[in-house]
User: Which sequence fits this backbone?
C-alpha cells in the first residue's frame, strides 16, 4: 500500500512557525514528526483527516477528551441547545447545578463539584484546598507524575523558580514505604498526596497499582491527616465511571477530572467530600471562562451517555482486543510489543529494540492511517469499532513488514 | 414601577449549595446579593434574562467576554462552521495559524501569538517566558493588580504558601520613582514588570496612567533588561484595537489578552515580540483544551468584526454617554457619582456616602433591570444601544428616588 503524503501539513507548519513560537506549541509540539501529519481538516467518530486528506483511525482521541467519538450527536445537541440560551453570561447557568448533581450521583467520592477548563485547573485547586484545609504547605507527588503545567508541578524547567519547588516532595510509584519515610521525615508538614490512580508517565511503560498499594497509601493519609488527591484528568471514566478508586478499592478526598468529561468541549471538574467543602469555599480560584454554560451542558450529556452505554467497560474491551491484536501481529513479525497501563489507555513499547526503532515503527503506522504516538499512552473511545481494530492490526502488520527484521534494531 | 421578583433564583441557589461549595463559586460568588438575580435563563445582544424571566441591560458583559453582544451571528457562524469540521482533535487546526496571523496583523506589539483558555493562562505564561528569557526570578506587579489566580498573584490568601510570595514585589500604581527604587534595591534580579495598562482594582476608583508614566516605566525596563508585560485581559480591544499601549504611547514586550477575544468562546492569547520568541518556545505551557479549534474560529471572527465596526471607539462613545447620563441623573437627585477608568469599562462610586449606601443604590438599579455590580468595573459592548443607555438612566433615576435623600447616608 502507498503511504500518506503530508506536504500540505508541512506547508502550513512553515507558515505557522512565523507567527507561533515553535509553529505548534504545548504538548502537541512533541507529536510533530518530520514526515507526519501536523494539522487536521476534519474529524468524525473515531477518525480524523489531515489537511492532505489522509484518513486516520485516532488512538490519541485529542489526548483524551474524545471519549464518545468526534461530533457525538447527543453531546452536540445538548451544547447547541445551551448555546441558544446562552454560554458565558453575567450570571451562572442552572446547568452548572445539574452537572454538579450528575457528578455527585455518578462519582463515589463526590459530595460536591467545582469547575474549571483544563485538568491543571482542577489539580491546582485541589492542592490549594488541601493546603487551606490542613494549614500545611508541603505536597507529595510521584516522580514522573504529571498534573498540568502549574509551577509546583514542573519546578526546575525553564521559566520556573527555586521557590516553586521548595514544598514539593517526589516519591517513586508503588512504594508505600517511601511514603511512610517521607511522612516521618516531615511531621505535620504534608498537606496532601497527589497521584494518578495508576502510573502513566511518558517515554516508558505504564504501571498499575500493586496489590495493597492504595490501601496502604489511604491508611497513611488518614493516620497523618493528609488530603488524598486522585488525578483522574487522564484516566477519568476510562477505568470506572464511579472513579478509578472504586475499581481499586480506596476512598480519596478529592478527585480531579478533565479530558473525557466534556467529549471535547472545554471543561474540567474537581469533586470532593463534605469534610473539605468549607475549605473549598475558602479558596479563591476562578477564571473568566469557568462559567461557560455550553461545556457544562456537553459534560452532562457526555456523562449520561457514558453511563447509558457502559462506556468504561466498552473501552476496556476494545483496548484489550487492540492490545491482543497488536501483540500478536508483532510476534508474527518477530517483534515483542509491550502493552502497559489500562486497556482503555494503552502504552506501547517495542521491547528489546532501540527507542528510535520503536519510534520508526510508530511512524510507519501513522503513515498508513493508524494514529499512534511514540512517547505517550494512547486512548480508546466508545466510537472505535471492531473493524477499526482489525484494520489497525493490518496496518501494524504492514508497518512491521516495512521495518523488516528486528535483528537490525537490537539494543 | 415594580421591582423584580427573584424567587426562582433563590430556590436554585439553595439547591446549588448542596452540591457546589458556596453555591456559586469564583468571582461570580461576589456578585450574589440577597435579593438579586443569581442564575440566567437566556441572553441576547446586550441583554440577559434571569430564571424568573426578568430582563436586564447587561453592564457586566459576563465580566468582559461579551464584547459584540450575546449570540453574535458572525461569530456563532464561524464557530458552527469550525465545529462541523472538528473542535478538539489530535492534531492542531489550521485556524490556529489564521488567528495568530490576525493578531499579529492587528496588535502593534505582536510578532507571534500563543493560546490558552483564561486570562490567567496568558499572564502565567508571560511571567514564565520573562523568567526563562532573563534567567531572573523576581517579578514586579502593582499593589492591587489582578492577573488571575496563579499562586504568585494571590500569595497570602487561603491555599497559598510562603514560597508563593517570595519573588513578588508589589508597588503603587502611577509611581515611576517607586519602580526605580525597587530596581536599585534588586540589581539583576527582576525578570519582569507586569501591569494592566491602567489601574482597575475592585472596591475603589480606577485610575488612568499619568502623563509620562508609561514612558518612564518603559525606559526603566529597557535600561535594566526587564521584560515589560501588559495585562490587557480585561481592557483588551476596549481601549484600542491595536493594544492600549498604542493609545498610551509605549511598547511592551508581551501583551496578554482574554475576555473579549472570543466574544464568550473560551480563549486567551499571549502575544509578544520576536526577541522573546525562542524563550517562548523554551517554556512548557499547555492544556488539554488549549487546542480547541472552535474558540479560535470564534476569536478570528470576533477580531474581524471588532475592526469592521471600529469597536473600541464605539464602546468609548457609548460609555461616555452612559457616564454623562448617570452623573447627571445622580446630580438631579442630590448625589455625586464618580465614573472612573476608561469609558468602555466604567467604575462607578457614589461619592460622600457610605459604601453600603452605594451598594444599596446598585441593588435598586439591578432590581429595575440595569445589571450593575457594586464593587467592580463595568463593561460596555458594541451591542448596547443609545436606547439601552437612555433606559438605564431612567432606571438609575428611579433607583435614586427609591433611595431618597443622600443626607441620610453621609459617611
Assistant:
Amino acid at each position: 500500500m502507498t503511504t500518506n503524503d503530508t506536504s500540505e501539513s508541512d506547508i502550513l507548519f512553515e507558515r505557522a512557525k512565523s507567527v507561533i513560537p515553535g509553529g505548534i506549541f504545548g504538548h502537541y509540539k512533541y507529536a510533530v514528526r518530520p514526515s507526519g501529519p501536523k494539522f487536521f481538516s476534519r474529524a468524525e467518530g473515531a477518525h480524523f483527516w489531515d489537511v492532505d486528506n489522509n484518513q486516520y483511525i485516532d488512538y490519541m482521541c485529542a489526548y483524551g477528551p474524545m471519549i464518545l467519538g468526534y461530533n457525538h450527536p447527543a453531546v452536540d445537541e445538548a451544547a447547541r441547545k445551551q448555546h441558544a440560551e446562552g454560554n458565558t453570561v453575567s450570571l451562572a447557568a442552572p446547568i452548572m447545578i445539574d452537572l454538579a448533581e450528575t457528578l455527585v450521583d455518578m462519582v463515589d467520592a463526590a459530595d460536591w463539584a467545582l469547575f474549571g477548563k483544563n485538568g491543571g485547573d482542577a489539580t491546582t485547586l485541589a492542592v490549594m484546598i488541601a493546603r487551606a484545609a490542613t494549614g500545611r504547605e508541603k505536597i507529595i507527588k510521584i516522580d514522573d507524575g504529571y498534573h498540568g503545567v502549574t509551577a509546583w508541578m514542573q519546578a526546575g524547567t525553564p521559566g520556573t523558580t527555586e521557590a516553586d519547588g521548595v514544598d514539593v516532595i517526589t516519591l517513586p510509584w508503588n512504594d508505600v514505604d517511601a511514603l511512610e519515610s517521607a511522612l516521618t521525615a516531615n511531621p505535620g508538614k504534608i498537606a496532601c498526596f497527589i497521584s494518578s490512580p495508576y502510573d502513566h508517565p511518558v517515554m516508558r511503560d505504564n504501571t498499575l497499582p500493586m496489590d495493597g498499594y492504595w490501601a496502604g497509601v489511604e491508611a497513611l493519609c488518614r493516620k497523618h491527616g493528609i488530603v488524598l488527591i486522585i488525578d483522574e484528568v487522564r484516566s477519568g471514566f476510562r477505568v470506572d465511571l464511579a472513579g478509578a478508586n472504586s475499581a481499586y478499592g480506596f476512598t480519596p478526598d478529592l478527585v480531579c477530572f478533565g479530558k473525557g468529561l466534556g467529549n471535547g468541549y472545554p471543561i474540567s471538574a474537581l469533586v470532593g467530600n463534605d469534610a473539605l467543602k468549607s475549605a473549598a469555599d475558602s479558596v479563591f480560584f476562578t477564571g473568566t471562562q469557568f462559567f461557560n454554560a455550553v461545556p457544562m451542558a456537553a459534560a452532562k450529556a457526555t456523562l449520561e451517555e457514558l453511563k447509558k452505554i457502559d462506556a468504561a467497560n466498552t473501552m476496556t474491551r476494545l483496548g484489550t482486543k487492540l492490545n491482543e491484536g497488536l501483540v500478536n501481529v508483532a510476534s508474527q513479525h518477530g517483534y515483542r510489543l509491550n502493552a502497559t497501563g489500562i486497556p482503555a489507555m494503552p502504552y506501547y513499547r517495542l521491547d528489546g529494540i532501540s527507542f528510535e526503532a520503536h519510534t520508526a515503527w510508530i511512524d510507519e503506522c501513522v503513515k498508513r492511517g493508524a494514529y499512534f504516538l511514540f512517547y505517550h499512552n494512547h486512548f480508546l473511545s466508545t466510537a472505535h469499532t471492531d473493524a477499526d481494530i482489525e484494520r489497525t492490526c493490518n496496518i501494524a502488520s504492514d508497518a512491521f513488514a516495512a521495518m523488516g527484521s528486528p535483528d537490525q534494531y537490537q539494543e
DSSP finds 13 helices and 13 strands in chain A.
